[in-house]
Protein 1
Amino acid sequence: MWRELRRFSERDLTSHAPEYLRWMRPRLRDGRVVAWIAETADGHTAASGAMWYQPSLPRPGMPQQTSPYIFTMFTEPPHRGHSLATRIVRLMLGASRHGGHARVLLHASNQGRPVYRRIGFERTWEMRFWLDARLAHVPRKRAPPRPARPRRSGAS
């Protein structure tokens, strides 16, 4: 998943794994993170995703102290286009409804946006400020240049 989102070095990925596991394990054990896995008939993972019940401020009409946050959604390339991610997200939404939550949050990758739009997610705007500018670099595709506007010549 991380390789497809951004070109991290093998060293970055290897050094990140223990840190991620230290964060993830206690949350899986106590239910703050729940994961769904779609397997092939022979037991290989085809798609997966997780949902973190992250701490949230209570607000009028939304007294819950947590907000479900979908993350690490990934479908292995040979299994894309078979609605596995859609089915997993719908299971997550059902679990969230059953838990009395009013909303579900996520940050979608470019590949994931169509899946979430079809389900009914709406795009929201978020702002951030990088305190460490070295971490802010994420390669982006540049927009194609705009065509020049034709100039109107004065009447002669």
Protein 2
Amino acid sequence: MALTRIEAKTACPGVTLTKTPEGLGALYRPGCAAAVWERAPLQRFQNWIDAIPASQLPKTRTILQPGAVRRAMHELCSASGLSDCEERAMLVDDVAALADIFADLMQAPYLRLRLDVVTTNACRKFHIDTVTARLVCTYRGTGTQYGIATDGGAVDTIQTVGTGAPILLRGALWPVTPDFGLLHRSPPIEGTKETRLVLVLDPITELENSASPYLVQ
């Protein structure tokens, strides 16, 4: 893959921080186990999504072609009862854009898309996912946490991804070594009354039996 020249810095060993979406391509570099696109949401968008009742936040788990994400998100938001406003359009556009970026980087004809509404300690243990790579973006609440576990021990210093900032992580099926010991988790929020809205994208190269209505663009 041809990498775009980027200006980036390192958060911890194996993690690249970038100010541009093109910088996520650093994941293909031998010394990179994860890349974080450091960006902050517009305040009016954040105020809007933070004010939505948890029961009305859009959530789904589906497999679809990247070009079908926008339509699927429009339908999902309508089914959730979200009014058709500028902020809703921002959410739809951003999920669709991240799907396009991720699918292009992974050369994936299909994506597994999850929008999770989280109020408990989901995936609270540090781990590595059994996928080739995964993109995670937290639109509401505390972002994904990560750190280095040396020699199989506990994570020492914990870093937290900013709200609205996508992180692209190598998974256990990534074919390149070395193993940096980079692990991640969902932040422990149980008992805090915090609600998170988290987008997760995984690449799918081949489909088995699926009844998803979004497999044809």
Protein 3
Amino acid sequence: MSDFHLKMLILVTGTSRGIGEALIHHLATVQRAKVIAVSRKQVPAAKQHKDILYVKADIATEQGRALVVKAVKATRLPLAALVNNAGAMLNKPFGKITPQQLSDVYTANVATPFLLTQALLPQMVKGSHIVNIGSMGGVIGTAKFPGLSAYSSSKGALSVLTECLAEELKPRGIAANCLALGAVQTEMLKAAFPGYQAPLTSAEMAAYIADFVCTGHRFYNGKVLPVSSSTP
């Protein structure tokens, strides 16, 4: 990691599987970015990439967020982009969702990206890009599905948070956008829609997100952008 300071720095959360895992590898290999990959799980050495710094941390905790901030500071690079990809899915009838389950989903999908962005803000500069990974279920006026009330409403809150960040950080030249993803073939999709075959793979969606992370803030700010070709 001696040359880790040489390139653009991008931090991605929720990178142990699915879109997050595919995204960090695309950013490192295709976009040639230096990537900090944050996950609660330890990444096996065989799956690691030389341009990716792996940080094991529970970012729902203050201690975990402090570890992430320390890792960013150690690179001595400004944070060019933050991708809040980590999240939690709950598929359960509305009447049976417990207070703890509701709290867990909102902590993962709203409070954690809120607090992590807050903690990393001092490391961002003019031109930095915050990308929140939302859901079509969190967009007003789109189709909603039984069992996803906690998940979809939390992603709706993330969408509004994105709009708030864009306005508040505008004087600093920091952009914030939300990609409201549709169906992608991931473990999370299987939990939400068992048996459904999505039109896109994790790698295909990751390639789109990677390009948006690096260039999207030139065209958009404060936008919640649907990225979907199907329902769900």
